[in-house]
Design a protein that fits this description.
The structure is a homodimer. With about 250 residues, chain A is of the alpha+beta class. Helices cover about 55% and strands about 5% of the residues of chain A. Chain A has a four-stranded mixed sheet, covered by helices on one side.
Amino acid sequence: MELKLYVDRLSQPSRAILIFCKANGIDFQEIKVEIFKRQHLSPEFQAINPLQKLPAIVHGSFKLFESHSILIYIASAFPGVANHWYPTDLTKRAKIHSVLDWHHLNLRHGAVIYLRNSLAPVLGLPLNQEAAAEGEKILVSSLSTIENIWLQGNGPYLLGSFQPSIADLSLVCEIMQLEILNEKDRDRILGPYKKVLQWIESTRNATKPHFDEVHNLLYKLKVKLSGQYQADGMTELKIQTSLTSKI
Amino acid sequence: MELKLYVDRLSQPSRAILIFCKANGIDFQEIKVEIFKRQHLSPEFQAINPLQKLPAIVHGSFKLFESHSILIYIASAFPGVANHWYPTDLTKRAKIHSVLDWHHLNLRHGAVIYLRNSLAPVLGLPLNQEAAAEGEKILVSSLSTIENIWLQGNGPYLLGSFQPSIADLSLVCEIMQLEILNEKDRDRILGPYKKVLQWIESTRNATKPHFDEVHNLLYKLKVKLSGQYQADGMTELKIQTSLTSKI
């Protein structure tokens, strides 16, 4: 039964699912739905996900969206996925659910608001400084919770584990989105969280070479934006055109 | 092995867990942690949940927080919970996870922002009208999604089901929090969504008499606030004192 992933590698939860499937040797067809080209708003994609959000999957005739539910479904439906990704033990599984639930209104919420508002000038959108500050507050508080609560324990992964779970992938891919900030802002926000930085490296190593391969488009965007941050005399329009036409 | 629920019946996810346990005949000890008395910030409760949020549970030596993960854990760990609450079928379970994941940044997010800002004057807090409007926008959009997408299908429950799941309980308890609004605002927001109103009634009926018993504290608060909304010459301070001392 064919597994189709509707994804955009510039979307953090899309990347988590791609890396998970590749790291577990699961065959799939990658169907690119480019957000910058507004392809997620097309009637074709709306037939897959009526909420018009990425990622989504189709497995045979079964359609599903929301990245955490997709990760859990794939980990459960495909034989051969190592138990540490989504343990069968009820208490271990419950703790992973707890991190995933926490993620939505904390790390995800903070990162999305902060990035949207920090990049607004680059994207030719109106800047809301109050919203950017609020986003940064939630983001920094979330990073502090990861550093001081979720990464407590002996192992290098969330919940003190010695091997990664779907929660590590989801949260690390969220934080990786900060790569597209200018270096100064990224260091200011992430720099104080040494365990977080080490955990990102551990997750990258545990899923190599897929981690960097799937993030490659983001790294390219980082280089492109890095040039734009430094350029003199740039206009918002130029960058917006560049982003929407070339990515 | 004893199950302890750390809850406040004025908290919507606390109520979902209480109703779930009562409807399934699960024995538990209810430990009240009163948010208005800031008991969730005490060192005793921090030892249960380092994030200082309600609800939380302790089952034997196992501690857990985040209401969706708690509902899933209890449904899985206690024999005798009917399958419809959290089906073993992978695709049905995945769809329930999808609704629960969606909930956080949509219905929950909108309802919490809207209520916090609408009730700010009553609670003696500064009113942010822009935030209240933004909250209402997210809340109304979420109700529309429930009406037009999640409640599509033949059955009266989410995903077209004929029996309720943990997702029905979680989302209905969230919407029930709107009871404490004044009647005009509540009708304006909820009135257009006929299927949603019918679904709340179906969920209430499926879990009676526990639904109303657990919501009783909220109904009392509604009556109290209703008097305050109508009273002339009330001061913010009066209501705040009333809320913090008597509820």
